[in-house]
Design a protein that fits this description.
Elements: H1 5-10, H2 24-37, E1 46-47, H3 50-57, H4 61-74, E2 77-80, E3 84-87, H5 116-122, H6 148-160, H7 176-190, E4 199-202, H8 205-216, E5 222-227, H9 231-239, E6 243-250, E7 253-254, H10 256-262, E8 268-271, H11 285-298, E9 301-305, E10 330-335, E11 347-350, H12 356-367, H13 372-383, H14 386-410, E12 416-418, E13 426-431, H15 437-446, E14 452-453, E15 465-469, H16 475-491
Parallel strand pairs: 5-6, 5-8, 8-9, 9-10
Antiparallel strand pairs: 1-3, 2-3, 4-11, 6-7, 10-11, 12-13, 13-15, 14-15
Helix pairs in contact: 2-4, 3-4, 5-9, 6-13, 7-13, 8-9, 8-12, 14-16, 15-16
Length: about 500
């Protein structure tokens, strides 16, 4: 028997699952590479001729030759003219299986040992599948309302424009034309006072919060957060090492006096004052002024997450907290992902002048900059008036969908009480009985309704209810989905307590 007879037996493609769209030669490479690293093919061992191995693996000889060439380039194999193909002598044997296990399936990799920060990040898992808005999905705009033809034309124009500005490495803070457009937009719509140089373009509000945490927080620093809260941002703050203090929100928003009693040494406060997430309440003017007074007196910082400040159904959008700040302690966060389309991935920070250099450096370290052609198209979208036209259309259409949700909730008024609904893409409905909102939501999800239980948004004592998005649901769909919710509520035993 030739020296390579044992090699033929251990090389079996059935033992190496294929990744989606993986070329066949790449699978053969992986098969041989793993056999070498596991010690199943020893240093100096001769491999079968390519035509023999191709026959045994039921692949083409060209496939095997390509695999051999790649492994020679990587240093795993040597080819000797007139002699054959051999395992390189200087490849160490790693992950050698125990005696008797040779030729079997590769053992499973060890469980990853996460850092403390990694464990905190993993508590809030990412999306394994695309998020497409259905009935009651919160925080997702309706894609069918976006002017895709206009946007496509602007994107094409950005790519075809003479010069390399959109195709080269860009400025970390963002494209100057976009920063000028954002500064003009937020000044007119939210009374934000800033120069374009104070704007840092990010991919999302979450990245903006992460950037601020990197710049301002040391491990152990105390941070006030609203309760209930936007959990991804709070998880980011925890992962940065912050000592998060939940502050209960009432009908006037977060109370700085209550927060001081809970944690007098806070360095930062994270708030959503214009449309508290998820309750929808508006922080009152006295509460806003008290929070600003704390920041000026204590040298603290405030992150104002104005995630949907452009969408109001009762009067004009309110002035931002940043507009009331005389001391430069507010860091304003805005996003276009909620008013255009979720995959856009363009948001922004407005930072006080003293933080510009540090935030620019942090953005550069994170990912360099946002895509240049997208920024250029968005700048033109704003400057040419398309954003203003789009927002007017959205407010009218979303108002109809919001009213349809409120009408549907009226049919369940004995079970659900609607919270504030004057702005944004969602509203909160509170259960009038102490039922398990998570069990009800799970039943609705099984029926195809994306129902989010309110109790999951709390860090402390929770109320039961649901966070109901209305942007992606037309009125007929909303009423049909609410009937399913009603049946799920009715099927639950009375008095079942909410799960914390």
């Amino acid at each position: 028997m030739t020296r390579h007879s044992r090699s033929i037996q251990i090389l079996n493609l059935d033992g190496l699952p294929a990744a989606p769209n993986q070329p066949l030669n790449t699978r053969v490479e992986g098969l041989i590479r793993r056999a070498i690293l596991a010690g199943n093919l020893a240093a100096g061992a001769r491999l079968p001729a390519s035509r023999v191995l191709a026959r045994d693996l039921e692949v083409s000889r060209h496939t095997v030759e390509r695999a051999f060439d790649q492994l020679v380039a990587e240093g795993f194999l040597l080819r000797r003219r007139g002699s054959g193909t051999y395992v390189a002598s200087d490849v160490p044997e790693r992950e050698r299986p125990p005696r008797g296990a040779r030729g079997g399936r590769l053992r499973a990799p060890p469980v990853a040992a996460l850092s403390a920060r990694g464990a905190l990040i993993a508590e809030y898992p990412g999306h394994r599948q695309p998020m497409i808005g259905t009935a009651f999905t919160p925080s997702i705009p309706a894609p069918e309302l976006f002017p895709r033809q206009v946007w496509g034309r602007l994107m094409s124009r950005a790519i075809e424009r003479p010069g390399l500005e959109c195709l080269a490495y860009g400025a970390s803070g963002g494209l100057p034309a976009l920063k000028r457009a954002i500064a003009a937009h937020v000044a007119g719509s939210r009374a934000v006072a800033c120069e374009p140089e104070q704007i840092i373009v990010t991919t999302s509000a979450q990245q903006a919060v992460d950037l601020v945490a990197r710049v301002l927080l040391d491990p152990g620093d105390a941070v006030w957060v609203e309760d209930p809260c936007y959990r991804p941002a709070v998880q980011l703050l925890k992962a940065a090492g912050a000592a998060v203090t939940p502050v209960p929100v009432d009908s006037d928003g977060l109370n700085a006096a209550t927060a001081l009693e809970a944690e007098p040494e806070a360095r930062l406060a994270y708030v959503t004052p214009s449309h508290q997430y998820p309750s929808g309440v508006l922080m009152s003017l006295p509460r806003r002024l008290a929070l600003l007074a704390w920041a000026e007196r204590a040298g603290g910082w405030i992150i104002e997450d104005d995630y949907d400040g452009d969408l109001r159904f009762a009067g004009r959008p309110l002035a931002s907290l940043q507009a009331l700040d005389p001391a430069g302690r507010v860091i304003y966060v805005g996003t276009f992902n909620k008013v255009m389309f979720s995959a856009l991935r363009v948001a922004y920070l407005v930072v006080p002048p003293t933080l510009v250099d540090a935030c620019l450096a942090a953005k550069h370290m994170m990912d360099g900059h946002a895509p240049g052609h997208t920024q250029a198209a968005l700048a033109e979208f704003i400057e040419d008036g398309h954003l203003a036209t789009h927002l007017r259309r959205l407010v009218g259409e979303y108002d109809q969908r919001r009213r349809a949700l409120l009408t549907a909730l009226d049919t369940l008024a004995v079970e659900l009480e609607a919270g504030p609904s004057e702005a944004g893409l969602h509203l909160t409905a509170y259960l009038r009985r102490p039922l398990d909102d998570r069990a009800i939501a799970a039943e609705c999800v099984a029926a195809g309704i994306d129902l989010h239980p309110l109790s999951r948004y709390y860090l402390g004592a929770a109320r039961s209810g649901f966070v109901l998005g209305f942007a992606c649901s037309r009125p007929a769909r909303t009423h049909a989905a609410m009937r399913i919710v009603g049946r799920a509520i009715g099927s639950g035993p009375s008095g079942r307590k909410v799960v914390r």
